[in-house]
Amino acid sequence: MAAIFSLYIINKSGGLIFYKDCGSTGRMDTNDSLRLASLWHSMHAISQQLSPVNGCTGIDLLQADTFDLHCFQSLTGTKFFVVCKPGTQHMEALLKHIYELYTDYVLKNPFYEIEMPIRCELFDINLSQAVQRESVILLGR
Amino acid sequence: MIGAGKIKQYINVLDKPLSKGKQEVSLSAFAFLFSELVQYNQTQVDNISELERRLEDAGYAVGARVLELLCHREKGNRRETRLLGILSFVHSTVWKVLFGKVADSLEKGTEHEDEYMISEKELLINRFISTPKDMGAFNCGAFVAGIVRGVLENAGFPAVVTAHFVPVEGQHRPRTTILIKFDEEVLQREARLG
Fold first, then answer.
1. Contacts A114 to B, Cβ<8 Å
2. DSSP E strands: which ranges in B52-172?
């Protein structure tokens, strides 16, 4: 079973701009994924206000019984998050790598309109490769 | 002026050797600039062939300047006068200066005498670009085609240059072929020169 369930990218206003499920576990239909994305955006914002610590930047990791949710927020407010099997390691590095792919293959693409859903062939190809590589490493452990 | 004595003073600016130029620039910076160029031109046109033409025109200006510069810098103010000479100049010298490498291949068209092709597995300017399906066969390589046309035309080899995606067997990504179709006068002159 693949350790990574699904991947999301949400823009700074909470709209889902990219969704990808890896394997059959935890698959969601379009409505559910949109709902989860905006829900996460709001929770992330509220957590910043509720946090007792000064300068909190929001939730990085949500641990549940059946999944872990790792989140990475870029400086411009775009959020990348991945839902995976509880206890999966090295998700921060994967998210950073996905961010890198996003800056390369999405932001440097003249046909991409910023804040809009991502439809870039090269991004898809490179992302699949990254996730596959990660799964191989995880299985090897 | 501090340190002014150390620099050799040239009385005439033309005596100064031409600088070698900076060998590399940031690919990211270029990618963003090129992306803006494409986006700007997209707002100025109503159809794809118009966009292609505008990119080609932008490249043409680059090609004209590149020819001038390279003839001076690399060839001691001489330029190629023969067909194969200018083609290999484009394929190796121009490509190396612009993209840091020699083009993957230079071939003669099989069907027509006046056609030549320069192919690249992955054109540098297309590194980060995914062309949407609804744009059909549009290729941002039109800019490079323009550069090639600029070099050729200013060297006295008028030609029609176009960029195409060509699918490769067993490869996910198509390669880009720059198709060069020379004008009739060029071939007649070549024949005369023997």
1. none
2. 105-108, 115-120, 159-166
